[in-house]
Amino acid sequence: MTLQPGSVTLADLRRIYRDAPKVQLDRAAKEAVEASSRLVQEAATGDAPVYGINTGFGKLANKRIAPSETELLQRNLILSHSCGVGAPLPAAIVRLMMALKLISLGRGASGVRWAVIALLEDMLARGILPVVPGQGSVGASGDLAPLAHMTATMLGEGEAVYQGRRMPSRGALTAAGLTPIILGPKEGLAMINGTQCSTAMALAGLFDAWDLACTALATGALSVDAAMGSLSPFRPEIHALRGHRGQIDAGKTLLSLIQGSPINDSHRINDTRVQDPYCLRCQPQVMGACLDLLRNVGATLQIEANAVTDNPLVLTSDGSIVSGGNFHAEPVAFAADQIALAVAEIGSISERRIATLVDPALNYGLPAFLSPAAGVNSGFMIAEVTAAALMSENKQRAAPCSVDSTPTSANQEDHVSMAAHAARRLIDMNINLSVIVGVELLTAAQGVDLRAPLQTSKPLAQVIAALRKEVAFLENDRYMAPSLESAAALVRAGAVLEAAGRDLFPQLSLGN
C-alpha cells in the first residue's frame, strides 16, 4: 500500500488499522524529504541558534549544543523521554501510529533523512512493533513519551514484539535483518514531537465506534420486531423533513432491515398502541445524530492524519526553520471527546431497548425476562443489569478530557490538550459498548424466536442464524457469562453486519 503524504483517506487508514497491509511512502516524496534534511544539516553547524537542532529542548532551549554533540543530544532525547507507563497499546494501534508518522515525515517539513523513513517502513514490513506503554502523554508538546518508545526501538533500545514474541528491540531488529539507526540533527525531535499516538488511538476509536453504531442499528431493528414495534417512525418522509444526513441514513437502514417481516405484518391492523417508546421510535434521530458526529470527527482526523505536527518546521520554500505549535493536539482531543459522546449515547439507547424487552409491562406479550419458564428461571434479568452497569460506566467516561489542562516542563508547556487521555479511553468504552450491543443481540433474538411460528425479515433472520451458531436459544437458565462474551465477540468481529449485508448500512465517508 503506497501512502501519498497529504492525501491519505479514511479508507486508507481504516485498511491499515484493520488489515495490516505492508505500507510505504510514495517515492515522489523523497526529494522534499532530503531537501529539508539538508537545511537541518546546515543549521546544525551554523552560528544561529535553532530550537532542537543546536539547542536543548523545552525550558532548556537557551542551552547551545556543539555540533559534535548533536547525535548524543538526539539519542538522549529519546532515552530520557521514554517515560511511558501502563499497559502497552494494542498492536493495531501501534502499527497505525507508525504509519501516521511516515505520512507526516513524508511531507518534507520535518528535516529527517530518508534513512529514518526507510527503517520505519522496514519495521512495518517485517512486523517489528515497538512496545508502547499507553499512559504518559498530555497531548502537547506532542505525544512525547509514547512516540519516544516507538523511536527507541529504532535505536535498538526498549522492547518490541516480533513474530509474536516480546523481546529487547535490538534483538528484534537483528532477527529481522535490520540495523539500529543513529539519529542526526533534529531527527529525534521530529520523531517524538507530534500527535501520531493520540491520532492513532482516536482513529481506532472512530473505526470501532462506527462499526458498533451500524451493528446497533441491526440489533435495534431486531428489538423493534421482537417488541412488535411500528415501522411508521422510519418512513423516509419524516427524516427528509428534518434533513440531517445521519438521521436519513439511520431511518433508511432500519426500514430496510425490518421491511417484509411477517412479525411486523401480523400486528399492523389490530395493534391498539399509538406510539412506541422513544428507544424504539427515536432510533433514527438518536443514532443519526451519532452518525453525523462520527462523520464530522472523521473529517477532522483525516486532516490530522495528513498533517505535519512536529516542531520546528522546515520550510523549504524559503529555507527557513520556524518554531510553531502544530504539536498541540487540541483538534484530536475535541474529536476524541465527540467519539466518546457518541459511544455513550449508542450504549444508552441500546440498554433502554434491552430493558424494554425484558419487562413484561412493555414487551407486548413476551414472558418476563424473556424466559419461557420465568420464576424458577431468571432469564435475561442480570444480563440487562450488566448492560446497565457498562452503560453507566461509559456515561461517566464520556466527560470531556479536552477542557482539562495542567502546566508541564517548568511552565514552558503551560497549556496542554489531554488528547491522549481522551483517545485512550475509547478502547475500553468501545469494548463496553460491544458487550451492551451483544446483550441486545441476545435479548432481541430471544424475543423474535419467542414469536414463532411468526418469522422476522430475511436480513434479521440471517443475523439470528449467525448468533445461533455460537449461542443457543435460552430455554432454561445456564451459566451466562460465555453467552455474553460470545455475542460481544460476534459484534466486535463485524459478524452481525456481514450476516445482515453490509450494503444495508451507512458508510463512514462516502467517496472514500
What topology emerges from the helices and strands here?
Layout: E1 2-3, H1 10-19, E2 24-25, H2 30-44, H3 70-81, E3 85-88, H4 91-105, H5 114-125, E4 129-130, E5 133-135, H6 144-154, E6 159-162, E7 165-168, H7 169-175, H8 187-192, H9 196-226, H10 236-242, H11 245-258, H12 262-266, H13 278-281, H14 283-305, E8 313-315, E9 320-322, H15 330-358, H16 381-397, H17 419-449, H18 458-468, H19 481-492, H20 495-500
Parallel strand pairs: 1-2
Antiparallel strand pairs: 3-5, 4-6, 6-7, 8-9
Helix pairs in contact: 1-4, 3-6, 4-5, 4-9, 9-11, 9-14, 9-15, 9-17, 10-11, 11-14, 14-15, 15-16, 15-17, 16-17, 17-19
Model description:
- With about 500 residues, this protein is mainly alpha-helical.
- The protein has 2 domains: about 1-195, Fumarase C, Chain B, domain 1 (Orthogonal Bundle), CATH 1.10.275.10; about 205-310 and about 340-505, Fumarase/aspartase (Central domain) (Fumarase C, Chain A, domain 2, Up-down Bundle), CATH 1.20.200.
- About 55% of the residues lie in helices and about 5% in strands.
- The strands form 4 sheets. Strands 4-6-7 form a 3-stranded antiparallel β-sheet. A two-stranded parallel sheet has the order 1-2.
- It is an enzyme of class 4 (lyase).
- Keywords: Cytoplasm, Histidine metabolism, Lyase.
- Its EC number is 4.3.1.3.
- This is Histidine ammonia-lyase.
